[in-house]
Amino acid sequence: MADTSKNVLVMAGAGLSTHSGIPDFRSPGTGLYDNLQQYNLPYPEAIFDLGFFVRDPRPFLSLAKELYPGKKYRPNLGHYLARLINEKGKLLRMYTQNIDGLERLAGLPPEKLVEAHGGFSSASCISCFKEHDPDETREAIFRGEVIRCTNGKCKGLVKPDIVFFGEALPDRFFLYQDDVLWADLLIVIGTSLEVYPFAAIADEVPRDVPRLLLNRDVVGSFGMRKHDTIVTCDIIEGVTRLAKELGWHEELMELYAKHEPCM
Length: 263
Ligand code: OAD
Ligand code: ZN
What we know:
Blueprint: E1 8-12, H1 50-55, H2 58-67, H3 77-87, E2 91-96, H4 102-105, E3 113-115, E4 118-125, E5 131-132, H5 134-142, E6 158-162, H6 171-175, H7 179-182, E7 185-189, H8 201-204, E8 211-215, E9 228-232, H9 235-245, H10 249-258
Parallel strand pairs: 1-2, 1-7, 2-3, 7-8, 8-9
Antiparallel strand pairs: 4-5, 4-6
The structure holds 2'-O-acetyl adenosine-5-diphosphoribose and zinc ion.
The site of zinc ion has 8 residues, from loops.
């Protein structure tokens, strides 16, 4: 199907990055939410909760320090598949929930990418919303400092523009609402489709558009439509199978082997 498609919409979540060494959120045992004991959080999602951040910014800031793009994690074959779909002129858009920036590092052009839960490339104050220098923010986080707003007497907390629970998604998420109407194939990779409004995209594509799921578990409404294809396997295995079926495997391996992160 992807060989004839011209407008492929890709949706991705944390499962896409597990082979890069970043744990996902909800996998029992290995997911981030099962491994936050060191932070004494009242409940796991508190690490992305604005109210909790105000009381104690340190858990989020130490997680952020760990996840900063370009530091230690590298894109994997799954990220390069998205790039290859784009290089074939078939990528309409990639929507990712991931904040690790690995799509960019793999060379996906920013105009093709919607980082729905934000990222580290900008930073702002949570009180007055003044933008702060992302490089200074990064350096402060690396030094383990809590950053305060310098706008007048504000002194609000500054954080990278990662979307917390209860916060609005970036404007860019709403910029391409027509994408679902243009898509002629939807590929969903490595997400539990539990977090809205992101997850809704999978249901907003018209019913006659084929949907392909590459994920360990069946998620969302997959299986309820005639044109759904579900591949429940490890993501790298699924990506490899897809690339082989498309006759793109060699090219994909070449792209990956070059492995020159785009900063
Ligand atoms: P989840 O952890 O909820 O889901 C990851 C999915 O990927 C699960 O269905 C896993 O089974 C699957 N998975 C993980 N590793 C895999 C592998 N190697 N092969 C195949 N499947 C694999 O992550 P998301 O759906 O991305 O929000 O979570 C959505 C949002 O919840 C995140 O963006 C984050 C979190 O709270 C914010 O940061 C605001
Ligand atoms: Zn401020």
